[in-house]
Amino acid sequence: MAEFGTKKLKCKQGENHAEDGKDRISELPDEVLFFILSLLTITEGAKLSLLSRRWRMLWNQFIPRNLNLDGSKRLDAQFRKLFPPKACKAIITSETLKFVNWVNKVLKSYQQAPAGAIDELKIQFDLDGTYKQDIDSWVAFALGKKVKNLELAFIFRGWTRDVLYPFPPLNNNLNRLQLRSRTLGFPKCDSLTSLVLTRVNVTGEILERIIRSCPFLERLSLVYSLSLVHLNVVGPSLRLKCLEINYCEALKRLRLSATSLVSFKYFGRNMFMPSQINVPNLIELCIQLGNLRNFVYCNFPLPSAYISLIQKLILTVEVPFSRLKEVEDIQFPRFRHLKELELRVIGNDTASLLVFSSLINASPSLSELTLQFLWKINHQIEGRKAQKASKCPHSGLKVVKVVGFVGQTIDTEFCMYLIENAVMLEKIKIDTRNPTLSLFECFNRKIIRPNIPQTMINAARERAEQLKTEYGLEDKLVIL
After folding, report:
1. pLDDT band at 172, cuts 50/70/90?
2. Tens of pLDDT along 72-85?
3. Secondary structure of the chain in the HEC alphabet?
């Protein structure tokens, strides 16, 4: 991975020669020279290749085929030092220009080298449409180098405007890109297998061109696109295996007909049923249901014929229910072939995770369950007494993982339910090391990595030890 902000290598032609005029460094074995190249950044390696023909040949053999140009760590460091971001606009603008210039230099060094295709180009920074011309050239570079995996991750750190970069529809002549034209078609690209766009504006029309022009595209991920309204992923010859749509709030209609699709992920405020769906090989479903109350009044976003085929289900949901009567009123559809269930739950101690007991009971083939608890502590409300759901033995569940255990009523009673009903349980792992605040909580508290009080962690570990003793679990219960 290329590092943003590393010191530059200063070298002049002839500096690797001894006083007698002989090139001592170039006389070293290839293995030693390759090791030297492995210690350099991409820019430094490109400069070194200018020193001699042998260095140039070695660099062309060594030049990395995966370009991960990530400035997020430096960005996070600035964010911590200079919060709030509005108070440091000049500094942030300067950092952004440095990053853009650095990416341009790295890609220029690749362009000058006679190296062929690259496998991956990933660019991660807080950028917006202000830098459209530069980003356009990066996309053109990637397509010109026959990239396989292209990722533009323009992560939000609080200081870019909401003028997102518009993904360009390109024509077939990469030497004469007229990137601002809305009428051009996306070039045919047989190499592209994965496209990930985060905080990038792209319309359904352009995405459909891309799908048609990239016959080997297997993964398409879209995160926070404001211009995506209608999307048709339809075609008998599609090779698309994974489709991910996150927080594209303008999306109103989705037509999905892809027999090769095995994974579908949808996160958003509104849960809706695709207007057309044909996914006979779908085995993984990842959805955000928002508030679980919405599920009570809305249909599950897949017909029952496809639900029965799902083998892995990931749900991200906020649980508002607390009374056992409310919990038992919820009925999940039957997942006959579900083997792995991952619950990413947002809640506080007034809610109850026993609402998922009906989902577990509706999954007779379930063998592994993971609970990731995202703790909400902004509401200072007294906890409640533990409840017990109706007993329903489950003979398939063997492995349980609980991440973010806080030892309160909400997660303790759920662990007790699993221990009492999973009659063939082989292992339960309870991770108390780092209880996690929900993103909403982090945003409200203006923090990136919250520090959980050590007293809270100690109390959680003590409660887990009590469960181990109370149920005589011994080696079955592992506490982290």
Report:
1. very low
2. 776 666 655 555 55
3. CEECCCCCCCCCCCCCCCCCCCCCHHHCCHHHHHHHHHCCCHHHHHHHCCCCHHHHHHHHHHCCCEEEEECHHHHHHHHHHCCCHHHHHHHHHHHHHHHHHHHHHHHHHHHHCCCCCCCEEEEECCCCHHHHHHHHHHHHHHHHCCCCEEEEECCCCCCCCCCCEECCCCCCCHHHCCCCCCCCCCCCCCCCCEEEEECEECCHHHHHHHHHHCCCCCEEEEECCCCCCEEEEECCCCCCCEEEEECCCCCCEEEEECCCCCEEEEECCCCCCCCEEECCCCCEEEEEEEEHHHHHHCCCCCCHHHHCCCCEEEEEEECCCCCHHHHHHCCCCCCCCCCEEEEEEEECCCCCHHHHHHHHHCCCCCCEEEEEEEECCCCCCCCCCCCCCCCCCECCCCEEEEECCCCCHHHHHHHHHHHHHECCCCEEEEECCCCEECHHHHHHCCCCCCCCCHHHHHHHHHHHHHHHHHCCCHHHEEEC
